[in-house]
Amino acid sequence: MQSTRFVLINTSHAGNVGATARAMKVMGFSDLVLVAPRFPDVACHEEAIAMASGAADILARARVVPTLADALDGVDYACATAMTPRDFGPPTFEPRTLFAELAAREAAPRLALVFGSERYGMANEDVYRCHAVLSIPTHPDYGSLNLSQAVQLLAYDLRQAIGGFGVQPRTPEPERADARAVQGLLEHLQTALVDIGYLDPAAPKKLMPRLNQLFNRAGLTNEEVHILRGIAREMSKTAARTGH
């Protein structure tokens, strides 16, 4: 199922072809087949390349064929996309449920996801060629999706079913300042507070122990210690200039 084929039938707008390529590449798929598009060279159109946004390699490998039968050559299991079921047509499934069932099979099938034209969707005879119909759950009052949006949703659900991509790790946590660095900061800050007249060295009360506990709770990083020491340094310089 990693090599799932995405089939677009009678696509009219070059931008949708490009956006489809982008949606596929984001989810790690690359097999794109265009059935009788409005423009045979649609994958080369400027709008398609612009909308692909870095997925031009998918467009370059895309194949154009005259019929859906040609597009499904080598496919074991084809899924039509349609908002409404067809009389006497294949059964309708919610994508996530069907993908999970197919992925769990001992021998997962070579899959094709088939999308109709932007204006008319899929013709009945094309739906009948497929093994299942996929219906994306949407708000009951409005279920209209752009072609590439539908591709993105199905590509995401399929990727999750066959093993999603891990979330990229965050930037490594900055190094925490050790006790010696914090004590150096406290001593520097104490000098600066005396310089500006905020702290009376003869009666310091509990200010410095409280600041010590504050810094311990904060879990200062080395960079934050440097920033606070820089502030303390400027405090002492200002006090020296002004005579305070």
UniProtKB/TrEMBL annotation:
Uppermost EC category: transferase
Record SUPFAM superfamilies: alpha/beta knot
Extent of the signal sequence: none
Gene Ontology biological-process entries: methylation
Cellular location(s): Cytoplasm
Gene3D superfamilies on file: 1.10.8.590, 3.40.1280.10
Main location as per UniProt: cytoplasm
Annotated catalysed reactions: cytidine(32) in tRNA + S-adenosyl-L-methionine = 2'-O-methylcytidine(32) in tRNA + S-adenosyl-L-homocysteine + H(+); uridine(32) in tRNA + S-adenosyl-L-methionine = 2'-O-methyluridine(32) in tRNA + S-adenosyl-L-homocysteine + H(+)
Boundaries of every tRNA/rRNA methyltransferase SpoU type domain copy: 5-156
Claim: Methyltransferase is one of the keywords in the record: yes
Domain of life of the source: Bacteria
UniProt GO MF annotations: methyltransferase activity
InterPro entries to which the protein is assigned, alphabetical: Alpha/beta_knot_MTases, RNA_MeTrfase_TrmJ/LasT, SpoU_MeTrfase, tRNA_m1G_MTases_N
Keyword tags: Cytoplasm, Methyltransferase, S-adenosyl-L-methionine, Transferase, tRNA processing
EC code: 2.1.1.200
Purpose: Catalyzes the formation of 2'O-methylated cytidine (Cm32) or 2'O-methylated uridine (Um32) at position 32 in tRNA.
Family assignment from sequence similarity: Belongs to the class IV-like SAM-binding methyltransferase superfamily. RNA methyltransferase TrmH family.
NCBIfam families: rRNA_methyl_1
Assembly information from the UniProt record: Homodimer.
Name of this protein: tRNA (cytidine/uridine-2'-O-)-methyltransferase TrmJ
Organism, as annotated: Pelomonas lactea
Lineage, uppermost ranks: Bacteria, Pseudomonadati, Pseudomonadota, Betaproteobacteria, Burkholderiales
Gene name of the record: trmJ
